[in-house]
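User: I'm putting together a teaching handout on how multi-component assemblies are represented. Below are the sequence lines for each component of a complex, exactly as they appear in our records. Could you produce the 3D structure of the whole assembly as structure tokens, so the students can see both representations side by side? Please keep the chain order the same as the input.
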Amino acid sequence: MINFALLAMLLLVAVALLRLRDLFTAAMLTGIYSLVSACFFMVQDAVDVAFTEAAVGAGITTVLFLATLSMVGRDEAPISRIHLPALACTLACGALLVYASQDMPAWGDPNAPVHQHVAPRYIEHSADEVGPPNIVTSVLASYRSYDTMGEVGVVFTAAIGVLLLLGNGTKRRRTARREPEDSA
Amino acid sequence: MIDKPRSMQSNPILRGVTSITMGPILLFAWYVQWHGDYGPGGGFQAGVIFAAAVIAYALIYGLDRAQRFIPPPAAEIGVMAGWLLYIGTGVLSMFRGANFLDYDVIAHDPLHGQHYGILAVELGVGITVAAVMIVLFYAFAGRRHR
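Assistant: Of course. Below is the structure of the complete assembly, with chains in the same order as your input.
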């Protein structure tokens, strides 16, 4: 029941986002979308994912959107007409995804392939081999620590990329700010 | 928001709520960081919660005061230091004669070695994620003043 309510809210927010032309409201709605998604993860017992979604999706991303809006203005350029090839491409991709989802195992199915491969070994041996009662932690930090190292590398690279594009926002700001004080 | 730091700074409700919630948020980030092997959480979650607290502080009290709390050079060093701590843990286990990132050899008891290794790499992840989020925010918020 609560799943359906949350899904309906997600759909509602998504449709509202599509129709909006005011970017400030759109930024707020993406925050709400993330918050509803976080509730969804919470209901599915993925508490750590819900933490991340609430803090990054609803919090930090919204702040960064607003910071961007304060530079570019809050109105979207008007779109004169519907771009038919783009619409057809989007609809085709969506239809393919819906078609592919028919082959996915049911939610919580114990016979799903993902529960047959290495998961039983992790569940049975993680306490003896790694120790922590939270198996998610032992998988992320010990069994699959190469993956996690790569993920941190991706985060690192993203930060370097943004710094190269935007600058770190400090030195020039200080000088630009002191100049009027000195002249005045 | 970033356009009008003055109006948000002068709002007593925002200031009060921020100063009351700041400590618990930072404490919660600390808890999520170190309690990740018993409860939900870990470095990624702790990092973003910590960064969210710093960003909320910057929104209410202004960018300058946040940058006195976490100076931009410190955040930039953190971006690298966290990842290096992660890799360094792996290199440490190589020096002790095991494979890269095989924590069994870090302490005498393999389970203790795993525990220390996991704490170290999670701390590395937390430092990098928090620092990256703060650096991104500084980069965006600092641009307006140019």
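A couple of points students might notice: The CA atoms of residues 61 and 67 of chain B lie 11 Å apart. Helices of chain B lie at 5-9, 12-34, 43-61, 63-69, 72-95, 110-143.
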